[in-house]
Amino acid sequence: MTHPARPSLNNGALAPWASNVSNKRGIVAFGGNMPFLGGRRIASEQGERYGDWLTQMYGGTGDTDYVGYFFHRASELLSAAGSIGFIATNAIADGDNRRSILGRLVASTPAFHIHAADTGMPWPGNAQVLVSTLFLERGLPDRVTRPRLLDGRAVTAINSRLRSGDEWAEPAPLAENSGLASSVASSVVAASFSNETRHKPSWGSIQRKPM
What is the CATH number of the domain that holds 67? Predict the structure, then answer.
């Protein structure tokens, strides 16, 4: 993949993790504790150009946590058969994080598989946060990656929601429900306004209480 020109961070340094690595065979394993930074803080702390570059390069959103982009960069540099093991935020399996990180990796070709994960672990440091540890692999033999382990118990598979079982498709909106929510909301607001108007006392009916 050809990367756009790397932007500078707020401190003027180039983003070091996005540097080019020339290794035709790839790297067989990545492991580490990546920086924790909420998606909405990337642009404010590292610069808007850098935040825009990340979303353009890896298809994230403004809510994608910084750690997610390290998963994507590691997947680019990984060999055809290899593993990634990172500590991530506990929100890695929720919302935009799941869709733009784990969901894309397990749907890629060749696909990644989550072969071990521990969720909801209290961070041992001073920060009062929960973290998840994840191990993903592609191209490795079953004798290395099985059984799959989710929170210490053996399962047949781990999906991008960090639950046991195969991946399932994203819920799709029903065509017949198009516009239904807005019309229902309008009806509720109208009914509420009508009810308030009907029961609102007139100024003449309000009697001043004696002091």
Answer: 3.40.50.150
Structure-model confidence comparison of residues 120 and 60, the more confident one? 120
- Pick from 54-63, 116-125, 150-159, 172-181 the range whose average pLDDT is largest: 150-159
Residue 52 forms part of a structural domain: yes
**Domain residue limits at 118:** 23-170
Structure pTM?
A: 0.72
Cis bond leading into 7, ω under 30°? no
Residue 87 is assigned to a structural domain of this protein: yes
pLDDT tens per residue across span 5-15 = 555 555 444 35
163-168 long-range contacts (CB < 8 A, ≥24 apart) are: 167/106, 167/107
Separation CA 157–CA 150 (nearest Å): 9
Are 45 and 35 spatial neighbours (Cβ–Cβ below 8 Å)?
no
Tokens 């020339």 found at? 22
Helix intervals (H) in 8-120: 39-46, 48-58, 66-77, 95-97, 103-106
